[in-house]
Write a structure and sequence with these properties.
alpha/beta, single chain, 4 strands
Amino acid sequence: MDEIRIGYFLEDIGQEQFLRTLVERVAQEVGIASQQLRHEVRNATGGRGKVLDELRRFLRDVGRERESPFPLLIVAIDGNCKGYQERRNEIHAIVERSGYRGRVICAVPDPHIERWYLVAPRTLQRVLGVSVTPGVPPYKCERGRYKRALREAIRQAGIIAPLGGIEYGPDVARALDLYTVGRADPGFKHFVDELREGLSPFVRSQDP
């Protein structure tokens, strides 16, 4: 059983908690066991600037043969109301200038990862084990809007969550209806579709 190395450049632990589990779930759905995946988180702190700086450093080291490319490289930066396409173009421009030839998949939750936690409120309700469906604010470009909404959902559930709710990221990612969330959030759909496409060659390589 060949190991599949997946590299991650992420903004924060909220993205890490959610995305690693989502990757494992999509891999399992296409026929790849979670034991085959080797997650290598190269950055999960410091926001967008740190992500892009560390990404550039990694790409430079690959070009100098100090690093090996990943079969799959996942780069996540919040949309911050710039939108999926602009952020994706920003990431791919950096990759293309470096000459990197590995597969790069972009995750762009807009405006922030907490919206992906909240976009399916009934899923969050089941995960938290509460009778009241958490409220999800309509999309609006406002700093902290979805972080506050997630904290409020946790508070109403009577749960003590030192990280403000992001510790439930793995549970939410496992329980989501991917189709429904993809319809509600195009950036989420783009990520899942690209991830499936990126994983598909590894499924074929396992065929007898």
